[in-house]
Amino acid sequence: MRGKVRPPEPDDPLCCCEYVDRQGDRQHMAACCCDCEDLDQACDWLKRQPQKADSLSRVIAVVTDRLRVPWLRGAKRVELSVVPPLVLLPVLLRLAALHFLVGMAVLTILPVLVLWYYYVTHRRKGRTLFFLSLALFSLAYMYYLFLTEVLPRGDVGGAQLVTVTTGMVLTLISLARTKRDPGFVKACPSDAHSTVTYYGRLSEQDEQSQSNGSCQVVAIASRAAPPGQGTGPATQANGLKKNWCPTCRIMRPPRSGHCRICSACVYRMDHHCVINSCVGQANHRNFLLTLLLFLLTSVYGISLVLRSICPRQNLLYALFYCPGVYAQYTALCFTCAWYSSVVTGGLFHLLMLQLINISFNVTEREARLALREKTGRTRLWGLVVDTGLHTRGFCTNWLEFL
């Protein structure tokens, strides 16, 4: 509550964003978006004092936590990683439409920045909505330009518009199905042969615990031995060490893996996708369907745009040579066609890797582990990683996957 106070004493100074108003109340200039103590420590360099290492990150955390929008049942937090694509993508694409050289520079820098951000987030194992926001907004923005810039020219018929719209809707539906449960591994109480109940604080051990008030039930060991291994002491210890997840505190089934970003184990885990979702046994087929639908829709949409803005050029090289396009208002459409082609090329490469892995019955996680442990054979300049563990032939591998 606000109260009238005297001017601050020397032992109780004002922080950098605090002041005493004309009524004698102590106020904060940035009370809506900062914590005064954290902000004061972050500005120690202005007072020529040593600055703490985490002072700036704490201010950013407070601002991120307090940046919310009103909602029916309380204010909802706004994820800052969603905002950059909404602002930068239209600006950069319109900037690239000004001149050919500017377009080359922008379309070169943009993928580099996206790859750099992916490397940073992947290295820190942090969750981000940047790539999901970029994907959804790119799809919506390309469709918006298709309706407002290409369709009024009269070169696109009703059937072609319905085809593009249907492809986009099916892609979004498949993406929504992909983001469902990838197949998280859940604890099975029948795997534990004995339990012990603790009423105090547990030590940090590799045990499965469930809190029930002050009572904690702990599973001591697993009843089932890992598949394909004996029951001897040495073999059982190696199997438990290999299949026991110390984070989830469960016994993992064969070919499952722990995702450090989702903090969960996933059946037949392939990888953690940039759409902020794991790809595992339950959604792997939907993931491939999403890639296939997007590629077909994107290629068809690019061909319609190029046929409209470069009608005299062959579609095979209209993307590389379209005379006079930068002297017309269609330069933005041409730039967006280039941007869509870059995205399509990257996702086509991802689809090819997925199809190759399925043909050899290996997941992306297993391929990385095989390369790290030098237990797999590489072919075709590293595109194929054959572990030789689960493959049973091309047709059988695909039947098992489908």
From TrEMBL:
Cellular-component GO terms for this entry = endoplasmic reticulum; Golgi apparatus
Q: Can you tell me which family this protein belongs to?
A: Belongs to the DHHC palmitoyltransferase family.
InterPro entries, per database record: Palmitoyltrfase_DHHC (IPR001594), PFA4/ZDH16/20/ERF2-like (IPR039859)
List where the protein spans the membrane: 91-117, 129-146, 158-176, 287-306, 326-351
What is the UniProt domain comment for this protein? The DHHC domain is required for palmitoyltransferase activity.
Q: Which GO terms describe its molecular function?
A: protein-cysteine S-palmitoyltransferase activity
Q: What is this protein called?
A: Palmitoyltransferase
EC number(s) given by UniProt: 2.3.1.225
Q: How does it sit in the bilayer?
A: Multi-pass membrane protein
Specify the enzyme's EC class, one word: transferase
Q: Where in the cell is it found?
A: Golgi apparatus, trans-Golgi network membrane
GO biological process terms on file: protein targeting to membrane
Q: What residues does the Palmitoyltransferase DHHC domain cover?
A: 241-367
| Main subcellular location of this protein, as a coarse class | Golgi
Q: Which UniProt keywords apply?
A: Acyltransferase, Golgi apparatus, Lipoprotein, Membrane, Palmitate, Transferase, Transmembrane, Transmembrane helix
Among its keywords, does the record have Cell membrane?
Answer: no
Q: Catalyses which reaction?
A: L-cysteinyl-[protein] + hexadecanoyl-CoA = S-hexadecanoyl-L-cysteinyl-[protein] + CoA
